[in-house]
């Protein structure tokens, strides 16, 4: 069987353009996470040149880690392979080989694939954590398959769910007093730079289209002195050397109407690299043509079917309006119930008020607020362009996004309600996740025990 895979991989290497032929070899439908790159078989079935059958699953594991290890590390993975090197836990691997990604995530098996690419039944936590019901009174009588229910535990990412964290944030208000986002670097700097440079910059080509010049003249690029040839003739510009990147962006010294992602990347490395890691950019990342809206599995506007995903999908050429990019651009393609419901939510109302200047910058909530969180790095900020980084499991959105403005319990209650996500958070949550209260009580009892021990000790 694995020989067959190796054969396909080798074949794919020598004949990369025969996508139709490759599709025939697919043993089954690929997951929601990977279908966009399913024809890049080599990305997972890489055999390092040899056809060593026994090596196949290690090779696959390496492939998974190549693309996902950084994110799992950032997520402080609760069950990393290293945890099971400890002899105390190693025995558990006989029940389930948790060191291999493939134990839980296989491919091309649509009939048994659950959300998030999970391909084993949901009750598997129980195999290793049977003692919980005995050691925790609070967990008595809970269903075997309920551990990973929203708001309780995740397998990998528990950053918003660790008991200590829950306890620390117990009793917070639903809406925090200073409910504000991190400001973008450009919002922090104000308009000072614009004033300085405005009079000095003229287009660096002679026959420039006046309408383009007009648009460009009110853009952030103009204000920062970024001229026509820097985007359209990237290698002709000496100043690019200052950005210290080596890419294949250049088109020699000839003018090119088309501006490739690699050109934007020379000046916007972090935005570009994060873009390449999510659903919008993952095809470009493996050398396939851009994702096209027509290929999507999610509902999209039919008049956008021909559109492709690159930097200009949200940032129109010469305009770079980040406010337009944050909502209107998204709704130029997305057409599912959740996205459409946004416009009627109180978050959208806040955004309208921010745009009209009625409330401070950073108080509005856009699609980008939730899906492309702003990241503070020492002295500046940037926008995480991987719109999948905080999407699933849904609690990952809580720490980076909701908790800037809402208490932890309110946030967990909100995201744990699938109906509320469907209607884009247009009402307060109706259900209550009990874990915050449970964690608090557990720590309270422990604190009481410690106090009474101290008291009896000091007597
Ligand atoms: C995102 C990663 C990924 C991509 C891309 C991918 N596969 Fe797979 N494939 C897997 C995984 C995971 C398995 C399961 C391996 C296992 O069970 O040991 C698998 C299994 C297979 C199998 C064995 C199926 C069986 O019934 O046992 C074949 C054949 C196969 N893939 C062919 C392909 C071909 C052909 C392509 C490209 C057209 C492709 N795969 C692309 C991840 C991938
Ligand atoms: C070429 C890079 C690449 C490789 C190789 C790869 N993945 Fe992925 N994977 C992605 C991207 C990109 C996504 C979509 C963005 C996201 O969900 O983070 C994704 C999504 C996922 C998801 C989430 C699916 C969902 O619906 O939320 C899982 C689980 C996953 N990958 C596991 C694996 C495993 C296991 C392997 C090895 C068999 C693997 N990946 C190999 C890039 C890769
Ligand atoms: C014991 C089962 C198990 C194993 C082994 C496992 N996963 Fe997962 N994985 C899950 C479950 C369950 C989810 C659903 C979200 C959660 O509970 O964290 C998930 C979700 C994911 C996601 C999407 C959500 C996220 O947190 O980014 C990725 C990517 C992923 N796994 C990659 C991997 C990789 C890579 C490996 C191997 C290093 C691996 N998984 C091993 C069970 C497993
Ligand atoms: C293959 C065995 C195995 C499986 C399957 C497994 N776990 Fe674990 N889990 C462990 C081990 C080992 C630890 C570490 C315990 C320790 O450090 O004492 C752990 C720790 C944890 C912790 C505590 C983390 C902390 O540091 O506070 C949680 C929560 C947890 N697991 C939840 C789950 C959930 C939910 C599932 C199912 C989605 C699951 N586990 C599946 C073996 C497993
Ligand atoms: C920040 C990068 C950037 C700068 C600076 C820039 N452009 Fe562009 N330009 C683009 C992008 C992106 C496109 C759309 C490319 C595509 O569709 O592939 C474009 C398209 C064009 C086109 C193609 C036709 C059209 O209307 O879309 C012309 C002509 C053009 N630009 C002229 C100029 C002139 C003249 C200047 C200087 C006044 C300039 N550009 C400055 C990024 C830039
Ligand atoms: C020669 C360097 C350079 C190139 C090439 C370049 N930019 Fe910029 N860009 C800048 C500078 C400098 C700024 C202003 C400071 C900042 O926000 O980083 C800026 C700002 C921006 C902004 C923020 C606008 C705002 O209102 O705050 C966006 C969006 C943007 N660029 C997108 C792009 C895209 C898309 C491309 C490729 C088509 C591109 N840039 C190419 C240098 C460049
Ligand atoms: C899916 C839409 C979308 C795509 C595609 C996109 N952007 Fe953005 N970008 C945004 C939004 C929205 C903001 C502002 C978010 C905010 O206000 O928090 C932004 C902000 C920016 C900024 C200014 C803020 C910062 O991070 O410093 C730059 C620069 C930028 N984008 C560059 C790029 C580049 C380069 C690409 C291509 C690799 C790209 N964008 C692709 C939506 C997009
Ligand atoms: C040019 C069209 C286009 C634009 C503009 C666009 N998207 Fe997308 N988006 C897509 C396509 C296509 C996918 C992949 C859908 C699929 O795999 O079914 C996607 C995927 C996503 C996903 C991941 C969904 C999932 O299930 O993994 C999110 C979240 C998302 N987009 C949010 C946004 C936001 C927020 C904006 C605006 C800042 C935006 N998009 C702008 C076309 C677009
Ligand atoms: C308050 C935060 C928030 C806002 C605002 C928001 N979303 Fe979402 N979005 C979420 C959450 C949470 C989910 C995940 C729901 C789940 O999987 O349980 C989600 C899911 C999605 C998905 C994946 C849907 C699917 O079926 O897989 C897309 C696409 C998306 N959002 C696009 C958008 C667009 C476009 C906008 C703006 C018009 C927007 N979102 C506004 C929080 C938000
Ligand atoms: C920039 C701050 C901010 C962020 C980030 C934010 N919210 Fe809100 N949210 C608010 C404010 C302020 C209100 C109250 C609006 C009102 O009552 O007019 C609100 C209201 C709500 C409501 C009640 C809606 C109603 O109509 O009663 C829900 C549910 C909600 N938010 C969920 C979330 C979730 C989930 C997240 C994270 C994915 C999130 N919010 C992120 C500021 C924010």
What this model shows, in words?
- This protein has 459 residues and is mostly helical.
- It has a domain at 2-147.
- The protein is 38% helix and 2% strand.
- The protein is built from 24 helices and two strands.
- It has a two-stranded antiparallel ribbon with strand order 1-2.
- A hairpin with a 2-residue loop joins strand 1 (374-377) and strand 2.
- Helix 13 crosses helix 14 (269-275).
- The chain starts with a helix and ends with a helix.
- Mean pLDDT is 87; it is low at 1-16 and 236-251.
Q: Compute the CA-based radius of gyration.
A: 26 Å
Order of helices and strands: HHHHHHHHHHHHHHHHHHHHEEHHHH
Bound molecules: heme C
Query: Mean pLDDT, nearest integer?
Result: 87
Question: Largest sheet, described in full?
Answer: 2 strands, antiparallel
What does this entry show, briefly?
This protein is mainly α and 459 residues long.
């Amino acid at each position: 069987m694995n020989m067959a895979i190796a054969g396909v991989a080798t074949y794919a290497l020598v004949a990369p353009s025969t996508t139709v032929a490759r599709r025939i070899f697919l043993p089954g439908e690929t997951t929601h996470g990977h279908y966009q790159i399913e024809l890049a078989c080599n990305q997972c079935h890489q055999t390092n040149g040899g056809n060593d059958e026994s090596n196949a699953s290690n090779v696959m594991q390496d492939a998974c880690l190549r693309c996902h290890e950084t994110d799992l590390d950032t997520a402080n993975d609760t069950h990393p392979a290293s945890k099971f090197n400890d002899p105390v836990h190693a025995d558990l691997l006989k029940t389930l080989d948790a060191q291999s990604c493939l134990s839980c995530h296989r491919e091309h098996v649509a009939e048994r694939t659950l959300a998030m690419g999970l391909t084993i039944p949901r009750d598997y936590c129980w195999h290793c954590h049977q003692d919980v019901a005995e050691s925790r009174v609070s967990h008595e009588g809970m269903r075997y398959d309920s551990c990973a229910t929203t708001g309780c535990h995740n397998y990998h990412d528990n950053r918003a769910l660790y008991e200590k964290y829950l306890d620390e944030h117990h009793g917070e208000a639903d809406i925090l007093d200073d409910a504000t986002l991190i400001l973008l670097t450009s919002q922090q700097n104000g308009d000072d730079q614009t004033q300085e440079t405005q009079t000095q910059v003229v287009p660096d080509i002679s026959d420039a289209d006046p309408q383009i010049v007009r648009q460009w003249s009110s853009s952030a690029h103009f204000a920062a002195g970024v001229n026509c040839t820097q985007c359209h003739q990237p290698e002709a510009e000496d100043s690019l050397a200052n950005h210290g990147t080596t890419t294949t962006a250049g088109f020699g010294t000839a003018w090119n109407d088309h501006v490739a992602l690699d050109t934007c990347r020379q000046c916007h490395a972090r935005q570009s690299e994060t873009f390449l890691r999510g659903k919008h950019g993952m095809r470009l990342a493996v050398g396939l043509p851009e994702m096209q809206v027509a290929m999507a599995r999610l509902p999209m506007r039919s008049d956008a079917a021909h559109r492709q995903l690159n930097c200009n999908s949200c940032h129109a050429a010469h305009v770079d309006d980040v406010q337009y990019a944050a909502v209107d651009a998204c709704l130029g393609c997305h057409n599912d119930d959740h996205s459409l419901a946004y416009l009627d939510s109180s978050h959208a109302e806040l955004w309208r008020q921010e745009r009209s200047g009625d409330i401070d910058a950073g108080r509005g909530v856009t699609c980008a607020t939730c899906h492309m969180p702003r990241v503070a790095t020492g002295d500046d900020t940037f926008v995480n362009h991987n719109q999948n980084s905080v999407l699933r499991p849904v609690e990952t959105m809580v720490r980076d996004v909701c908790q800037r403005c809402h208490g932890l319990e309110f946030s967990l209650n909100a995201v744990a309600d699938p109906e509320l996500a469907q209607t884009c958070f247009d009402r307060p949550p109706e259900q209550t996740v009990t874990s915050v209260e449970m964690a608090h009580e557990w720590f309270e009892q422990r604190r009481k025990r410690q106090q009474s021990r101290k008291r009896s000790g000091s007597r």
